[in-house]
Here is the input.
Amino acid sequence: MFVAWRDLRFAKGRFALMGAVVVLITLLVGLLSGLTAGLARENISAITGLPADRLAFAAPPDGQSVSFTNSRVPERAWDTWARQPGVTRAEPIGIRTLNAAAGDRTAGVSAFGVEPDAGIAPGHVAPGRAVLSEKAAKELAVEPGGALRVGTLELRVEAVAGEDSFSHTPVVWVSLDDWQRIGHRGTSADEQATVIALTTQGADISAGDEAAGTETRTVDGALTAIGSYQAENGSLQLMRGFLFVISALVIGAFFTVWTIQRSADIAVLKALGAATPYLLRDALGQAVLMLAVGTGAGTGLAVVIGAFIRGGDVPFVLDAPTVLVPALVMIALGALGAALSIRRITAVDPLTALGSAR
Amino acid sequence: MTLLLDAVTLTYPDGDSRLTALDDVSLEVPAGTMTAIVGPSGSGKSSLLAVAATLVTPDRGRVVVDGTPTRELSPAQKSALRRVRVGIVFQQPNLLPALTSTEQLQVMAHLDGRKPRQVRARARELLHAVGLDDKVDRRPHQLSGGQRQRVNIARALMNEPAVLLVDEPTSALDHERGAAILDLLVRLTRERGTATVLVTHDRAHLAEADQVRAMADGRLDTQAPA
Here is the structure.
């Protein structure tokens, strides 16, 4: 790094310009990562927080994928799953997104119907009593003991607990019986749920699906059954991926031009006896140093801005994976772009340093 | 013999045929002596330097640098030989723009795996020897053409080479500064015992050379000292 370090100090303007580009791209990637994770959390936290390792959906018609919107599993299905060897727990869960109202306040919520003794909700649910996530309670301006209406159900708030969210709506936990009556104007409805939360240990999933008429996914695999999550997360991840590729290309282009500009100096150093690995190490070290400083500054800015907006209405997650992973990927891809560019050092002919050699 | 070229022939591809740059050239340069190679442009002077510097492998013949035959050396071994046994004074100073005069010399030690600060005193001593005591922290753009050429010479001597190859060192300088540079090269050759090959097209300053050889069309002819 003897020459590279001095080049960095000497050509401050050029490296500052390139460093600023790295800072801005890292800032953009960092904010996008936090936003992606925040939006994902609003989409899936109620599902990923379930005490289960698999979810059984009603088997869809041929050619269709499972979905939370279309799945309806009958009581027979969860009874069947409960009897399967290796299944330690099979809890029906009803999921429906609808409007809730309290006084003059209304909000879109996801009603999660669970058996009162299942221990899935963050508080105790019972017929006629609901547990609201904090965001649902805030939007409806209700407190424990207050009344609310979910669809056609009149409920009393038993507790406010947790931050569960599903498909960008806060969760209201109700008893499965109540959930089954939603939309039936207080009359009894069919014994059914949306999915079955399974806790398994070496269970034969295929056999269980065949017996129960279901299609089972791991919890992570079930997330794609949330239509909005798949589209939204896919789009944001695609944008993030493009930013990574763009940063690698921009850094590669910069170091291509830089290496071409330095070709005469490289030829001199080779003529003086510099080994090619020495020159490659020098140039790559320069690139990694610039990337590390630029990415560090960009990540720092993203953390500061993220901390500022996190408390507001913008869904934003600020944790090690959303902060460090993009930074490390930026450095790795940037270094790869730079490495591909500085390969041309190997092709520089030291003979050119002698001027006309023929 | 510190530098030996024995029946060296070098050709380059030229369309469907080959152009002969060096034609059966033989040269011996003992330590502490200066050999001047004179000749017009295109006569093969720079090719001779390139072969002696191990930058080009000749088609035929033998090149021995400080007792080391160079033909069988790998590229890495040739680089190492250039680092420690060969000093090159380029036609243009070819200084690295980001480095001060001292650092231009220190980089030679760094190329060889030594810590630059360990050779700082030697770098300063060489810059003193070429008359640049007050320019040690200047970058190339802060030096005159003659001063840059002096740094170029000091850099070539940094690793105490056995062979010093000098390519048209006065071509970019006026007569007075050119004469001063040649005097300096002769003095350093005597003091430091290098086998110096000086390539030039200018016959005006060759009186101090121990031997003067003329090149024409890739052939090297013997001449009496000027």
In short: The CA atoms of residues 4 and 71 of chain B lie 13 Å apart. Chain B has a mean pLDDT of 87.
